[in-house]
Amino acid sequence: MSRPPTLSVVLPCLDEASHLAASAGKIAATLDEIGVDHELILVDDGSQDDTWSVMQRLARELPGVRALRLSRRFGKEQALCAGLENARGRAVVVMDADLQHPPSLLPDMVRAWRDEGYEVVEARKVDRGDESLLSRIEAGLFYSLLRRVSGYDLHGASDYKLMDRKVVEAWARLPERNLFFRGMSAWLGFKRKELPFSVEERAGGRSSWSLRGLVRLGITGLTAFSSVPIHVVTMTGLLFLGFAVLLGIQTLYNWQTKQATVGFTTVILLVLITGSATMIGLGTIGIYVSRIYDEVKGRPRFLVAERTDE
């Protein structure tokens, strides 16, 4: 094995064949300009186009390029994990392959790590680019809720960050199968610095995120870093208990004073309300149980089908 490079750059890829070569070339050129020896770790997360063929060609033509092809689509978080576990650099940068994370920020990130002693240098969005209004609202609501229930302020956070080797090794010791990279890296702590950036225009392709995927990631983020939803269920139960006590007192009073009447509508409403609250409570508990189930199975986070460095 050759001497480990100073910097590893991890690029999770999904259907990026149209622009991956240009993106990798631009990132490598930027790192060459600042004089840092590097490697590019390209991770194919089950692409349906020619992404893997492009990766193989880049591994032959560009020095320092290593490529992994996962056995199927595991998701971006797992692809990030695969790249981090295979990176050999003294520091590791994680960024998107579509150049929405601008390579022009890399010199500042390396300088903050190498010259200023920061162990995590993370890029924070100050302009979300051409993202739709609905997506901005959804992101704002999610990060506001996450901050309230977990205490972590990830508003404007991105996966674009540089981590020192000691941080990468600490991250590798986290055993979760349900991954939320931004939250997990924030939980680690260490000496951190934020750099503002504006999301650039996509170099090619389209977003792979669907509403279903975003909802799943949101649920993972909330349940991985807070037990507040479970406590909300408990508080709801206590609220209904208090309501039931008051209603029982009223019912006994009406019976004692001969004012009791048949309240069919009231009964139906109470059944619907308590039934809904019960189902919501069971569903919330079920989410946590399913997370426990995923963890105790102990399945690997990802499987590598092919790699170019063997």
Structure, described:
The chain has helices at residues 20-33, 51-61, 76-86, 106-114, 133-150, 165-172, 181-188, 211-225, 228-256, 264-297; strands at 7-13, 38-44, 65-70, 91-94, 120-127, 157-164, 192-198, 304-307. The chain has 310 residues and is an alpha/beta fold. It has an 8-stranded mixed β-sheet with strand order 7-5-6-4-1-2-3-8, with helices on both faces. Helix 1 (20-33) links the parallel strand 1 (7-13) and strand 2. Helix 5 (133-150) runs parallel beside helix 8 (211-225) and helix 9 (228-256) packs antiparallel against helix 10 (264-297).
Can you identify the CATH class of the largest domain?
Alpha Beta
SS strand fraction: 15-25%
Report Rg.
Answer: 25 Å
CATH topology of the largest domain: Spore Coat Polysaccharide Biosynthesis Protein SpsA, Chain A
Please, what is the average pLDDT?
76
The CATH homologous superfamily name of the largest domain equals Spore Coat Polysaccharide Biosynthesis Protein SpsA, Chain A
Number of helices: 10
CATH architecture of the largest domain: Alpha-Beta Complex
**Structural class label:** alpha/beta
Low-confidence stretches: none
Question: Key terms for this structure?
Answer:
single chain, 310 residues, alpha/beta, Spore Coat Polysaccharide Biosynthesis Protein SpsA, Chain A, eight-stranded mixed β-sheet, 10 helices
